[in-house]
Amino acid sequence: MSLSFSRSMRSLQSDSFRPSLATLVIASILIAAWLAWLAFAPVTLYATSQDWQAQRDGSLSVRFPAEAMARFRPGQSATLALPDGANQPAKNFAAMVADIPSRTQNRLAPDTIKVTLLSGALSKDATGGEVKIAVETVTPLILITRATSQITAR
Fold first, then answer.
1. Residue 85 belongs to a domain with what CATH number?
2. Nearest C-alpha neighbor of 74 from the set 120, 106, 122
3. Are residues 49 and 103 in the same domain?
4. Running DSSP on this structure, what letter comes out for residue 74?
5. What is the full per-residue pLDDT of the chain (154 aa) written as tens digits?
6. Structural domain of residue 24, as residue ranges?
7. pTM to 2 decimal places
């Protein structure tokens, strides 16, 4: 019995544990990097609508659902993506929210906002397409927290 125990002790003393330590350090660095990404990586959330009309002044009148209207403010960045063809990528136009219906001096419908194009002009036959407005920038951790609270609220 003592012979096998002494062999075990010599085996343990000769083991360097370097591969295990290196694996532990690499795994710790990867987990720390993933946690940093989870806590600090920006994720932009967009509100989208395909219900828009070009106005005479070159701006767009865009309709959104009532629950999305509270998230809009003048000055928010927007994008108008117009399909260019069947196999072509969409043509993007930079835009900005110009006016929202909660202001008293405008005559916008309660579910409509005014978007001004910043780059390029629309052709007269421009139809279809999608207006995207950046409404919020959050982190993946906040998205997970929101999803978890929605699941537990049910």
1. 2.40.30.170
2. 106
3. yes
4. T
5. 455 666 777 777 777 788 888 999 999 999 999 999 999 999 999 999 998 988 888 888 899 988 888 889 889 999 998 887 777 788 888 999 988 887 656 677 788 898 888 877 777 667 778 999 999 999 999 999 999 998 887 7
6. 2-40
7. 0.71
